[in-house]
Amino acid sequence: MRLTDLPLRQPAYVDLIDWNALSASDGQRLREFGLCEGASVEALHHGGLLGRGPIACKVGRMTVAMRRSHAAAITVRTGPQEEDA
Amino acid sequence: MTGLPLIALVGNPNAGKSALFNALTGARQKLGNYPGVTVERKAGRFSLSDGRPIELVDLPGTYSLNPASPDEQVTRDVILGKQAGERLPDALVVVVDASNLDNHLRFALELIALGLPTIVALNMVDLATRDGLELDANILSRELGVPVISTVAVRKRGLDHLRSELESMLDGGAGRVRPTGEQPDFEGLRKEARRIARAAVVRETPSRRMTAAVDRVLLHPVAGFLILLALLFVMFQAVFSWAAAPADLLEGWVTALGETITATLPPGVVHDFLLQGVIGGVGAVVVFLPQILILFFFILMLEATGYMARAAFLMDALMARVGLSGRAFIPLLSSFACAVPGIMATRTISDPKDRLTTILIAPLMTCSARLPVYGLIIAAFIPARSVGPGIGLQGLVLFLLYVSGIVGAMIAAWALRLTVTKGQSGGFLMEMPKYQWPRPQDIAIGLWQRAVIFLKRAGTIILLTNIILWVLASFPQAPAGVRQSEYSIAGRIAGGIHLLVEPIGFNRDISLALLPSMAAREVAVSAIATVYAIDAGDDEDALNRTLGERLQGRWSLATALAFLAWFVFAPQCISTIAVTRRETNGWKWPMFMMGYLFVLAYAAAGITYWAAVAAGLG
């Protein structure tokens, strides 16, 4: 499922990131935040009064905020995390 | 530039770099600018244990040597020895957050590979322990090949150790890794960082995480938003209520100084000049120092606690509606203190059109220089009564003025986004730092620097403008029966301006104040004070009345309200125009900014005046 659909506070990990859907600079920033295939993610908060705001999620030990358009490019999977990432 | 050894502090944002910088240098800091760019250069001095002085420079936080914004570019250029106005550092202190090693070690590895003597400060180890993470600095040091020192900058822990390690490093000891000459690739660095981080963890127990718990409340879609609004409201109320006592005290000193001058100097031009031009003008501005410091106190606190990033998160959806990003909220909130640092803070916005729009609307945020103007008019014309529990009418009016600025800015951003800065909006990507209690010393240093900047302004630009105004308003001497402020050169210039602003309810006093207050908004207050002092001459009764009392006698309520509305929008600040020119590389955008803001100011003042007159307040 996409990170936008991940229920809040359910641990998951990144399955696939569609880098082509992101601008080069946004992609780089996401990488620097530690987002990569296999990274653990957990959606924490949806911003905006009507729920169309950004999403705050935990990536590894960091909390980062991103817009839904970024989160839509990230496919996640729930369940036990792969170790080698 | 000094010949001292130069050490650069580098690291990710939120690694606690600035706290370490403050802990090492204390108040011995100097703020400056790198030539050609508006990125602030923050440098200070400290001594090693043998007394040797060292120059320490705090570089802007960045995630990698691949810069995404102008300030990250400076960090990269300094470290590579390419930055104009800075020599290549003799050593690096890489600051990493102990509880976010995976991420911060990747950048540390990138820096170590450059081959400069390097020490890693494993910072905020106390917070890592609080989160149930126990780390072994020796393992880290072995794996990284450079000394690693555990620090808690906010408690000054580990600083002596850091100093002695720097000492042996500058003497040619450890800390240097032979550069391999290879450009390490991102993925390789990430994996290596992860391996080392795992090796260094001695014990990891899941524990209650304070930040997550607090975020559940503060980032709640409804509660979080209300808390943000409440915080801003308290902030603006405090600016008025907390400042009253210290402002009275300052006012007393200014009056006493004036009386001393009257008592010691013989009457004449020198006496008049000091009393009317200097004390009357600059003194009227200096009494607003407490209010400005209270405002900066709140902003520094919001930044230091980590709340500012949450405010940006909450505001993003709203900002997106007018084509901005939540990130723009931070420079805009700083602009409440002063648009100059606010506009400089826009360099963290990577999208050029987002950034330009934010710069163009930053002057609409009510900066602290408007406080003297608002403060004077509100105190004189708005009764100090309560309109609800804990809500004063004066504070409420002030709050409404701030809201008008914000609403105006949002409408302006929306309109700009449809016209001059049309195009795809950039995104919103931001780290949310952990919450922490700010160290009182860090806040004190920040306030001290702001106070010095304000007093310097009062002593230079405001004083100078006031001296010129005093001369223009004092000569030629008016014959008996004619008001000096109308007969003088300044009065005649004001007469011309008056023709333009009469339709929006501005009287001759205001016309006279408008031109000098182009230099800085506070000058409006000092200019009016100076002119009244000149008009009063030796009339004891007139001199004994406060500025507010004199205004009440000469201005109608409609005029006062129109004057307030004007100042919500008018771009009267040379420094803002100069920084806009620097940041946008030319005169086009600052000219555009002045143009649209003056049109808005004229319209707002006019509408306010005509509405007030229609309501019978004229």
Automatic annotation (TrEMBL), chain A:
Gene3D superfamilies: 2.30.30.90
Molecular function GO labels: transition metal ion binding
Protein name (Swiss-Prot/TrEMBL): Fe2+ transport system protein A
SMART domains per record: FeoA
Entry keywords, A to Z: Iron
Membrane-crossing segments per the record: none
Domain Ferrous iron transporter FeoA-like: 1-78
Pfam families: FeoA (PF04023)
Keyword Lyase listed: no
Annotated source species: Sphingobium chlorophenolicum
Top-level taxon of origin: Bacteria
TrEMBL record, chain B:
Cited Pfam families: FeoB_C (PF07664), FeoB_N (PF02421), Gate (PF07670)
Membrane protein topology class: Multi-pass membrane protein
Name of the protein described by the UniProt record: Fe(2+) transporter FeoB
Lineage, uppermost ranks: Bacteria, Pseudomonadati, Pseudomonadota, Alphaproteobacteria, Sphingomonadales
Subcellular location: Cell inner membrane
Residue stretches making up the FeoB-type G domain: 4-172
Transmembrane segments: 217-240, 273-300, 330-349, 361-384, 396-416, 454-473, 555-579, 591-612
Keyword vocabulary terms for this entry: Cell inner membrane, Cell membrane, GTP-binding, Ion transport, Iron, Iron transport, Membrane, Nucleotide-binding, Transmembrane, Transmembrane helix, Transport
GO molecular function, one term: ferrous iron transmembrane transporter activity
Entries under InterPro entries matching the protein: Fe2_transport_prot_B_C, FeoB_GTPase, G_FEOB_dom, Gate_dom, GTP-bd, P-loop_NTPase
GO cellular component annotations of the record: plasma membrane
